[in-house]
Amino acid sequence: MEHVQVPMLTMHWTRQTFVHWPYPPMDLQRLLPPPLEVDVFEGQGWVSLTPFVVSSTRFLGVPVPRGTFPETNLRTYVRRKGRPSGLWFFSLDVTHPAMPAARLVGIPYSLAHLSVRGEGRTRRYTGRRGSRGPGYEMEVRTDERIEAPHRLDSWLTDRFHAYSLSAGLLWRTPVSHEPWPLFRGTLVRLEESLLAAAGLPEPAASALVHTSPGVGPVRLGFPRRG
The pTM is what? Predict the structure, then answer.
């Protein structure tokens, strides 16, 4: 993990769920710009749907108005020769009107209607871009704490760089935070159209699910040429 000395943004990520599916690497590679390559775990690529709540948001140390809001991203895992491995986002849905400004460096934020609710160990997430855009409805149950994460648990969740493409240039944004406190999760219900909207086929395998109360402060550095 690269320590972000001077953050552009700081925030907390809370009420997090990760829903992961394995994919054949060729299904993912065609959606990536060169020189990025699919990062694989034991020969499999992975795609993750991750709804959560952002809170305590600060820009250059100054509190952001309406700094608590839900976000949902759909991502895969990438590598580049001579650079750290990281994330590639197919989409990031958010309710805060300022976040789509990150499109300047190719981070694909979209405004959406999102909600996060919870009762006991159950969380319910919903999202929709506009009135007829892609969206999802999800219900997840939190199960036991993962005291000793498997190598795959860490591989899927401990990612500290995000890649994006803008005007033909590749950018890399560093991120730092403490390790995720992880719990096993059970996917009670999921209806979604985000995967198809990203150009992905329907998953052929069942999902692996993690939940977390969250991490913070999360420190996002300034984007740099990737």
Answer: 0.95
